[in-house]
Amino acid sequence: MSEARLLSLVEALRILPGVGVKSAQRMAFHLLQHDREGAMRLATALDGAVHDIRHCERCHTFTEHTLCDVCADPERDANVLCIVETPADQSALERTGSYKGLYFVLMGRLSPLDGVGVRDIGVGPLLERIEREPAAEVILATSFTAEGEATAHVIGEALKARGITVSRLARGVPAGSELEYVDLSTIAHALADRR
Amino acid sequence: MSEARLLSLVEALRILPGVGVKSAQRMAFHLLQHDREGAMRLATALDGAVHDIRHCERCHTFTEHTLCDVCADPERDANVLCIVETPADQSALERTGSYKGLYFVLMGRLSPLDGVGVRDIGVGPLLERIEREPAAEVILATSFTAEGEATAHVIGEALKARGITVSRLARGVPAGSELEYVDLSTIAHALADRR
Ligand SMILES: [Zn+2]
Ligand SMILES: [Zn+2]
Questions:
Q1: DSSP characters for A75-104?
Q2: For residue range A38-47, what is the model confidence (pLDDT) as tens digits?
Q3: Tell me, what's the pLDDT at A1?
Q4: How does pLDDT run across B110-157, given as a tens digit for each residue?
Q5: What's the pLDDT band for B193 if we cut at 50, 70, 90?
């Protein structure tokens, strides 16, 4: 594969997490040989997403609008704020149907070994939001991994120092697991038993 | 993730081989949160590849031109034709530096269970090419898997019926393995010992 366009495509596919040079070559081959229409659809989707998707002004998740659907919904209980790591985690909580409050999406978690510090996850914007829109209770729903626990600890301490009631999802969630892979009833129970 | 553009992106990423819904979500999140520039580069690369990459008129591999670099090189020995499954396999043979003939790239291999028959790999175009440009010897360098062997068998019989000398890479290549993952010196030996 010495052709410039082909090399560019293989190189560009390697930006995807978990995709090495061999996988990228297989992907390029598959697209060019079997699914050129799909490749064009992917190009258009990437372009559209990059241009139109920004962060919700209230909860920081991805949205095409100023506010995401949840934040724009007047039925949600603004007294409770649930803090999650990613949009996928938020989505898992939503699918339980047992949470009616609002969210704040950190878009990451503390990971000192990977150089992800307090400033790289949305702790600053979270504290600003709490100032602007005080909540009676904040539920820490970060993952039950070492990094998720550290994130919950740092945020929990900062909130308690501001006199805010902080709870954590109950340990019904299996330790060491990532929220988005946990079955919905376990998440629902953990939500009810929050400590 | 209920946003239309985000759903489109996740859906579009699933066209990539080996990418399920969870991986696609992670990829979308990674691109939007950490690498929007890379996402734009990927969109451009997909677009460029789909529009500019076609099949070499002589060997059927991917190229931006009428002929690929190897087929356009007057130094290559047109008396020997090596048949491979994919551009990646061709590339592995080229990297051994021990083959100076031409290639024909099938762009697949027989796989009756997956519905890939003789007509889906380039056997017709291969036979037309042999009529047009007779070669003194054809080397079958398909994989040493059951499917690769079946492919070699079908093509070998068709060529022998036309009175063409057919050889196969020597069994120096470990059985059950795919050519592109084999180390270069093994391929070079197998090429020298072709039977
Ligand atoms: Zn929001
Ligand atoms: Zn060619």
A1: TSEEEEEEEESSHHHHHHHHHHT---EEEE
A2: 999 999 999 9
A3: 47
A4: 887 778 787 777 788 898 999 999 999 999 999 888 889 899 999 999
A5: confident
Ligand 2 (single-atom ion) residues, CB below 5 Å: B 56, 58-59, 68, 71
The span from the CA of B114 to the CA of B117, in Å, is 9
In total, the C-beta contacts within 8 angstroms joining chain A to chain B are: 173
Residues of A in contact with B86 (CB under 8 A): 29
Whole-angstrom distance, CA of residue B20 vs CA of residue A28 = 17
Residue B166, token pair as written in the block: 């057919």
What are the chain A neighbours of B26 within 8 Å (beta carbons)?
A: 17-18, 88
For B145, the enclosing helix (H) or strand (E) is: none
A window 58-97, beta carbon within 8 A of B: 62-64, 68-69, 86-88, 91
Q: How far, rounded to the nearest angstrom, does the alpha carbon of residue A105 sit from its chain's CA centroid?
A: 6
Tokens of B85: 């499954």
Taking residue A161's Cβ as centre, other Cβ atoms within 10 Å add up to 8
CB contact under 8 A, A87 and B29: yes
Nearest CA in chain A to B181: A22
> What DSSP line would sit under A142-177, residue for residue?
--SSHHHHHHHHHHHHHHHHTT-EEEE--TTSPTT-
| Residue B171 pLDDT | 67
Which chain B residue has the Cα nearest residue A9?
B45
